Amino acid sequence: MLAIVDYGVGNLFSLQSSFAAVGETAVVTGEAEVLRRAERLVLPGVGAFGDAIERLRQAGLDDLLRIRAAAGVPILGICLGMQLLFEQSEEYGLHNGLALLPGRVRPIAGAVPPELKIPHIGWNALCFPANCPRHPLFCGLGEQAFAYFVHSYYAAGCEPWVIATAEYGAPLTAAVARGNVCGCQFHPEKSGRVGLTILKNFCKWGGADEC
Amino acid sequence: MITKRIIPCLDVRAGRVVKGVNFAGLTDVSSPVELGRFYSEQGADELVFYDITASAEDRRLFTDVLREVARTIFIPLTVGGGIRTLQDFDRVLKCGADKVSVNSGAIQNPAVIEQAARRYGNQCVVLSVDVKRVNGAFRVFAKGGREDTGLEALDWIARCVAMGAGEVVVNSIDTDGVKQGFDLELLAAVCSRVSVPVIASGGAGAPAHFTELFQTLPGVDAGLAASVFHFGEISIPELKQTLRQHNILVRL
After folding, report:
1. What is the residue extent of each domain of chain B?
2. Are B96 and A196 inside 8 Å of each other by CB?
């Protein structure tokens, strides 16, 4: 069973529907009991980092996610959900994250030329690092795969775990993976066929780095 | 880099698309779900659903339709029409909208932009503005372009962006329906005034108008149109091929 972690931020209707569209049943729940039994977990998120991590903490879901990650359960963070996987974020002050991945979430402003608009919003091409094999999440995607992004902060200091970037005056982290923990900055549930392929791949993924 | 977006706009009344025409493979041209899926498969980068109903009953039909669209189409969805309060934002976001476009509602009550941006984030709040020249000045019109508000358009747009509008749809009443191209003069003025994404609307009659738009004004992020797509005068795959041939980055 796949569970989408519901901790009171954002609308999870599209995300749940997109799993249904690829033939997978996704349960939307904030109940620890259910999340403990889930075979895979999706951590969504919109809004601000500090508020989101505080909600996870108050619900006791931060420890639960760490325990499940350590147990080898495949975990996919999406957008802010991906950012929460990191050690820290600089969004409106300094906040600690789940620390499932090394790195820090920083403002895009300052990392890209000043004439570029913030947030980074729209469709951008995924660039896959040339020096390592394509991650299983991206199996079956063509050379030009576009994904839909909406964000003002990006994950930095996580270079060894970056499995895709998006070029926006600088290569911004678009997806990361280490062992059974992965995340996408873009919204697969809003990225058309490309996004659905990635979600389907996640459902089949055993948590390894190879296709 | 970010691609230029092509956005068809669907007017919905009583749960049905207004102005639908026949496309091969579409059994029900006035079904928002079918037409939306058709455009999504054709490569539309985003869909705008505009609720042009007035009655409460029709509004319920609209949200039912929206829910069905969000269940089956996985690209960004923007919803506009009759958005006046935070409750309106809430209603359509819960049905699967990603962004909410506000026009006359913001003119009546500008604070709704600030409130919505604070609650849902700037990226969620789209300002839609109908602009017409009056004695050489750009003026904001309300009620579907029927009423001159007296507001100076560039000041109004800048004010709304300062309050939290994350995107601006600029619809030129002067070029709308004329099919001679977008209102480049107005759009250039908007682009130099605000730094959020600008979506051009009104005037597209041929793929060349989109090429001209993006080549002349690199600051414009997207082109929106309705009837030229609905009547098959411009096909989205051909439009995107044309843009690519002119080295304009699009999602294919």
Report:
1. 5-245
2. no
